[in-house]
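TL;DR need structure tokens for one chain.
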Amino acid sequence: MKSGLSQIENRVHAELQSRFVLRFFLVSVGLLACSALVCLSLIYLLGPSAVSEKLKLSPSFLCSTALLVAGSCFLQRALGQVKIERQTPFRQALRFAVMAGMLFVAVQSYALWNLVNSQNVAEAQTGVSSFVFVLTGLHGMHFGFAFLCLVFITLKAHVDRYDHEYYWGVTVGTCFWHLLLVVWFCILAVFGIASL
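>> reply
TL;DR here they are.
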């Protein structure tokens, strides 16, 4: 009798895990599709910057920086809220962080597109803008992983995975986001030096 209950529990657990994985996949694809639509809208509405002789920091990079800082603040707030077992503000802060991350992906993609389309051919041959593009692209790949982690954490938070006793995933996700913010500031510094 005990093994029969165990098999039923295992099947129920496997079904719940399968549903969660499907939900994670659909939400991630949906958020990335929304990012792509926002990016395409920016491309359509704003178009490329004028071709310039020097590498210059476009306003879209500053906007994406603000979104990255906002996401970092929302995650720090979420971490503080889960530590004191305030589930509703915790989940709300995670949702805001996900929205900031989605918008960051969109604006950063537009900024990279703009960087490629607005560079002068002579400048492109020096390799400076290519170096900045590669740094930004590498940061984007790492951010993509962090964004998927954030989506995972947010979905787990909505099924009561985290509380004041267990919030390790939120801590790791927040620290990773903060680290990416510091790296982004370093990339902006390199960008600033390259544009001198």
